[in-house]
Amino acid sequence: MKLKLAIQKSGRLHDDSMRLLKECGIDVSNGVNKLKADASNFPLEVYFLRDDDIPQYVEDAVADIGFVGENVVYEKAKKVAVAHELGFGKCRLSIAVHRNEDYPGAQYLAGKKIATSYPVIVSRFLKEKGIEAEIHEISGSVEIAPGIGLADAICDLVSSGSTLFMNGLKEVETILQSQAVLIKNQGLAPEKQQLLDRLLFRIQAVKKAKNNKYVLLNAPNEKLKEIISLLPGMKSPTVLPLAEEGWSSVHSVLNENQFWDIIEQLKAAGAQGILVVPIEKMVV
Ligand code: ATP
Ligand code: ZN
User: Fold this and answer.
1) Chain mean pLDDT for the chain
2) From the CA of 192, how far away is ligand 2's center (Å)?
3) Which atom of ligand 1 is nearest to the CA of 89?
């Protein structure tokens, strides 16, 4: 039996999806124009689809799981479960208006025309705010709508904001923060769930490794205690004597978030020759 995974055929999520599988040690040949491919070393079959279709395929159990943006998951509102955040494909769904427009708050949108490819998410936002506005659904190039008089405002995906800027628009409201997630069919058979658990175990190990660094440093023995107290480590740091009398080598794992803070403190406490090495996989 194989776990069937749907990923984007081409577009912004394709490369990161393939890379994640690779980092999980799963080899998938990506023949151009192929609809599906088998992994050679994991019971996995990969379907290459348009991202918009992925939630439907997963709901219908044509695919067991999928990698897709949260924006698409919420817009399509299919009966699927979100099993894991994948950490790539980060963007936000935002409202933008003409650069010169005064925007005192969401009330601005009352009675206005909003162009978007996300009518479901936008109408939910308007409903929550108690605002009545007209939603004009268009499938692409939403950002040109205000300029050609088609709408007063737009709601579209933004990452850097440069597309908005080039079209004379300004971002005024973020209505959803999005990233790629792993979705699964709600009635997954136990054997498939077991395969998914194995895949999730690997995905977690890859993600954890990305957020951590392996740190090696030299410490004078009289400072060892203080230096060790600064290091969280997986259990406790490894301490090895150096050839030079009175010095030790200390190895530990540091989280990206606290990384610079701790490095500064280590230096101040007398650590020398600090080496920072990326970690490929991390299983705790
Ligand atoms: P398809 O042909 O599969 O329908 P598409 O044109 O709808 O592709 P892409 O532009 O490739 O989709 O975007 C796929 C997903 O990438 C989006 O749904 C979103 O989750 C994510 N994404 C990340 N950053 C951005 C961005 N700046 N603009 C648009 N999408 C982004
Ligand atoms: Zn799409």
Assistant:
1) 94
2) 27
3) 23
